[in-house]
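Worked problem 6 (solution included).
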Amino acid sequence: MKLLFFRCLVFPLVTCLITACASVNMKTATDIEPQASEPIIEAEAESQGANTVASEEKTQPPKPPVKDTTNADNYQRSVDTALEFCEASQVFWAEGNLDKAIDALDQAYTSILSVDTANNPKLIQQKEDLRFMISKRILEIYASRYTAVNGNHNEIPLIINEHVTKEIKRFQKHDRSFFIRSYKRSGRYRGAIVSSLKEAGLPEELSWLPLIESGFKTNALSSARALGLWQFIPSTGYKFGLKRDAWIDERLDPEKATVAAISYLTELHNIFGDWTTVLAAYNCGEGAVLRRIRSQKINYLDNFWDLYQKLPRETARYVPKFLATLHIIKDPARYGFSFDELDEPVPYEIVQIEKQVQLKAIANKLGSSFDEIIALNPELRYKATPPDTPYPLKAPLGTGEILLAKIDEIPKWTPPQRAYEYHRVKGGESLYLIALKYRTSVRAIAEANNIRRKHFIRKGQKLKIPLKDKKYAVSSYQLLDGGKYRVRRGDSLWVIAKRFNTTTKEIQRLNSLKSSCLSVGQLLQVVRQEDILDDKNRESYRVRSGDNLTDIAKKHNMSLNQLLQINSLNRRGVIYPGQTLLVLGTGMK
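Solution. The predicted structure is:
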């Protein structure tokens, strides 16, 4: 009964969790490998069971241990045996024996049920990791029942149907120039990709996947923040070993990204077994595809095209687009294409750089093209080697010794100091408290982040905090002489009114506008002449406890509108003790 309850309740919950994550981020990784301790085999019988698991035929899982709730050693032994059952399940699954694989996971779950973590807190993490592993493995096994797991590992079916024909026609007309340019660029990278695919035992046709992913551009960036030749989003790239920090993003490196892509495609093929389905999962994530498969209410995937209408529009086009590419590459003349010579791969050699230098300085010393050095090292985000660590720089072939001889002549580069740093707003924080923490003012933070309602910030919001003695420029939003503002692209009357604490009707009245239509570069009067104060007539006032905006305005012979205008406040604005406001100078009272 417990095992039936586990399969019926835990498995759907894990399934919902993983498929929900996949629907938020395209290509989101759902295979997070849990940490588990190495099994400690203390008895000869257990060792015998583990060796039997590895046998090729008639594999039998080890028997569960006798429960002993009084001995901590027995609890650890139960955890170790549960891990052995998990390993046995993996072997059964690889052999195609799904029933025995699930039975082994049931035995593993039975083993960890006997573990009392209340008196053995050191086992809590191991027990939770095993629970997660068992749930994930059951999900994978059940998912494999919904897919064709016996696909040919070295074959991509070259299908031609109405969907593929439509994509071929699109390449022949609207996307023709894109296809030709991408094909030309492929010569620079495809040779190395094909070699890696052969080594991994994957179809060579997958080497054309970057053509539809990125057009063979190493710096291609999608609207989903996928980057590089193989279009990895950060989370999926991290899962497959692509590092990313302030100076380096390995998604941009063609060689490293190719290794990661091959690992991802191999994993997807182990799940689906059908290359067309694998390509769909590569585009939108395995969770999204599995969700569509389950909605068919059948226990196998007979044909990818059964899923076609249920997939997201971009993914539904993705597979036919790839197949159309293969058809054109195979017989370009048939489809009206003739290609120029391919770009040649750029040979290079590795030089270890021990200090931070700019690529431009390296190019000048070598007499090479700056663009060539950048193309060889696309993962360097700021066109400079990272600080405080040696970096294997790719230099044009034959220039390595020259670079090493002249490296001391290249000055160490120090990046300019930032004028601000970042702060993530926490629960209960206000601009006043944040300003105190960084020894700045509320107004400076508001200006740096273009905040007009100074009392309104959100938990989790990322703020730029101007550093001490650094002035943050916001001149693009400042008024011109006479209280006028020049309209910028994207502006509207409502945006301008909110920016300068006025109303759209007031701006229309001041400028005699009959409609809300604006043109870029148009000058608008946004402040009444009587409300305009020169800088020389302003002075600072530090807010005291008990002050309010109306009292401050009266105290300095100002209208409330004048006070609000010169401090970028509104009538609902909140002020804090110690805050500095601009007020009318003594010479104007």
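Discussion: The chain has five domains: 31-145, 162-335, 348-409, 480-526, 533-589.
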